[in-house]
Amino acid sequence: MGFKVGVVGATGAVGRTMVEVLEKSEVPVSELRLFASERSAGQTLTFKGVQVKVEVLTEEAMREGFDYLLFSAGADVSRRYAPIAAQAGTTVIDNSSAFRMVPEIPLVVPEINGKLLKGYHGIVANPNCSTIQMVLALYRVHDRYHLHEIFVSTYQAVSGAGHKAVVEYERQLAGDTTHAVFPRQIAHNVIPLIGDLKDDISQEEWKMINETRKILNSRSIAVFPTTVRVPVRVGHSESVVARTLFPIMSKEDLVETIASGEDVILHDDIVTPVEVAGDDYVHVGRIRLFDAHTFGLWVVADNLRVGAATNAVRILKLHSQLNSDLVFESEAKEVEGR
Ligand code: A2P
C-alpha cells in the first residue's frame, strides 16, 4: 500500500530536491511519476534505487488521478495544469506563487497552520522560501507576545532562482561575467532586487509582506523587507528585527520561546549557510533583546529544502496523516492538536 505521487518540474533545482526528500521520508510511495518539459525528454532520475523516466507534462497525465502531485515548474505551469489535476481528485501541493494569495487556498507551513489540511482536498500552496524560514523562527513569539512589526533584510542564495541561475553563477565564477537570469553579475557581488518592482517594492518583498500575514493569520502585522541576492549556492540568511505588542519578559524567555518552535535549532555561536545546506531545520542565532518590545535575530535555512521541498513533503505527510487510513512507521506526533 502506498500513494501514487507525481513531481511536476522534476528536473529543476527544487523538483530534484523534492524527489530526494520524498525518498528519505516515511511517506509510502507505491508509484512515482516525474514530469518536465520536452527539453528533458529521455532523462531519468533515481528514486529508491530505481531509474524513473522523466515524462513530458500533458493535460491527459494530470487527468489520470494521483493521490498527490508536487508542482515546482513556475506559476504559469501551475496555473494551467494544477486545476486540471485538482479537478481529477488529486491533492496538489504547489510551490509556485500562482495560488498563494487566493483566499480559499490554504498557504501552509505544517508546524504553524497544518490544521488547515484536515478535511481539505484540492490545491495547497507552499509559501515562498524566505517567508517559510522567517515565520518558523518567529511564530512562537507571535503566539506569546503578538508581533506587530517585522523589519527583515534577506541574503538569498542563487539556487532560489532555479537551475539556470546556478549555471549562470558558475559561469561567472569561471570568468564569463555576462548575465541573463539576474539583473546584474552575481558572482563576487550582491544584488538588492529580486523580481520586478511594483510600487517601489519587489515581487519577493511583496511575497514576504502578504504571505507572512496569511500564514500567521494576522492582518495587522506590518512587514518591511529588503530582499537581496548574494553569491551563495544554497542557504538563505535573514537579519530580522521584530517588534511585539506585549512586553517581552526577559532575554531568557525570548530565547526559550523561539526555541520551542518545531524544527527550529538555536545557536549560541554564529551559523552560516554552508553549515546548514542539506538539512531540514531553521537555524537561529544572534538573538538580541534591544528593549522590552524589540528583538533581533539571524535566521538561516536550506532554501531548496526547508524553503521548498521539505515543506512540500511535510504538507504531503501531514495531509495524508490527517485524511487517510495509511499508517506511518513512526506516527508518534499528536498532529490533530496543531
Ligand atoms: P525542464 O528541465 O524540462 O526545462 P528551475 O526552477 O530549476 O528552473 O526548474 C523548473 C522546472 O520546471 C524544470 O523541471 C523544468 O523542466 C520545468 N518546466 C519549465 N517549464 C515547463 C513546462 N512548460 N512544462 C513542463 N515543465 C516545465
Describe the overall structure.
This protein has helices at residues 13-24, 59-63, 75-87, 110-113, 129-145, 163-173, 203-215, 251-259, 273-276, 305-323; strands at residues 3-8, 29-36, 44-47, 50-56, 68-71, 91-94, 123-125, 147-155, 197-198, 201-202, 222-226, 236-244, 264-266, 282-291, 294-301. α1 (13-24) links the parallel β1 (3-8) and β2. 32% of the residues lie in helices and 25% in strands. The protein is globular. By secondary structure, it is of the alpha/beta class. The protein has two domains: 3-98 and 306-337, Rossmann fold; 130-302, 2-Layer Sandwich (Dihydrodipicolinate Reductase, domain 2), CATH 3.30.360. The model is unreliable at 332-338 (pLDDT under 50). α1 (13-24) crosses α10, α5 packs parallel to α7 (203-215) and α5 crosses α10 (305-323). It is built from ten helices and 15 strands. The longest helix has 19 residues, at 305-323. The strands form three sheets. A seven-stranded mixed sheet has the order 3-4-2-1-5-6-7, sandwiched between helices. It has a six-stranded mixed sheet with strand order 11-8-12-15-14-13. Residues 9-15, 36-37, 39-40, 57, 73-74, 77, 162-164 line the site of adenosine-2'-5'-diphosphate. Adenosine-2'-5'-diphosphate binds next to α1 and α6. Residues 4-120 form the Semialdehyde dehydrogenase NAD-binding domain. This is Aspartate-semialdehyde dehydrogenase. The active site is at residues 129, 236. InterPro entries: NAD(P)-bd_dom_sf, Semialdehyde_DH_NAD-bd, Semialdhyde_DH_dimer_dom. Pfam families: Semialdhyde_dh, Semialdhyde_dhC.
